[in-house]
Specification:
globular, single chain, mainly alpha, 7 helices
Length: 195
């Protein structure tokens, strides 16, 4: 064994321990794609609300027609807080969805950027705060989707003949674990990057 081979053997284990495994890069890239899809969903939902000149009236009609307004976990909160302040909650919903969409997309771009090679993938000091904010956005997206699902009276997914030609899991319920997954991934990135 020559000197170069001995040096390589001594350095290799240390180098491998610091390097992110390929599966970690693939998992982060896949989670960035999920985060981007979630961001696009909330961004477009927010923009659709801004584009609707009668959004407050439509929001009011939606809330009043939803089964969860009169029965269920959120019914008293909706009746005592949301309905009397419907204009405020319509605005909060519109802006929240827009901001969540933007934050989730920016976080996804940042995760994706780090998976690239060369100077574009360089680490920056702003990454930990971006990851923390994106983690909170993931939780907020999950909470908002869950509250909408509860208000709509969605049930846990089951086998139903009426859903033979539609999605088996209502979109609102599907967004909940996706938001939690984004929060988990971004929270992990924050812990690593803030060291």
């Amino acid at each position: 064994m020559n000197t170069l081979e001995r040096t390589t053997l001594k350095v290799s284990p240390v180098t491998r321990a610091r390097r992110i495994p390929a599966s970690g890069n693939a998992a982060l890239a896949a989670s960035a794609l999920i985060q981007a899809a979630l961001g696009i969903e909330f961004l477009l939902s927010g923009l659709n609300k801004f584009a609707d000149p009668n959004f407050v009236n439509h929001f009011n009609a939606f809330v009043r027609a939803s089964p969860g307004t009169y029965n269920g976990l959120l019914s008293s909160l909706i009746q005592q807080l949301v309905l009397p302040n419907i204009t405020l909650f319509a605005s909060v919903t519109k802006y929240t969805e827009l901001v969540l969409g933007i934050v989730l997309l920016l976080g996804a771009i940042e995760v994706g950027r780090r998976r690239l090679g060369g100077p574009i993938a360089a680490q920056h000091g702003y990454e930990a705060p971006v990851a923390a904010i994106a983690a909170l956005a993931g939780l907020a997206a999950a909470g908002l989707a869950l509250s909408i699902a509860l208000m709509m009276g969605e049930q846990l997914p089951t086998v139903m003949p009426g859903r033979a030609l539609t999605t088996a899991i209502p979109v609102e319920l599907l967004l909940v674990p996706l938001g939690i997954a984004v929060a988990w991934m971004e929270g992990g990135r924050f812990r690593v990057l803030s060291r």
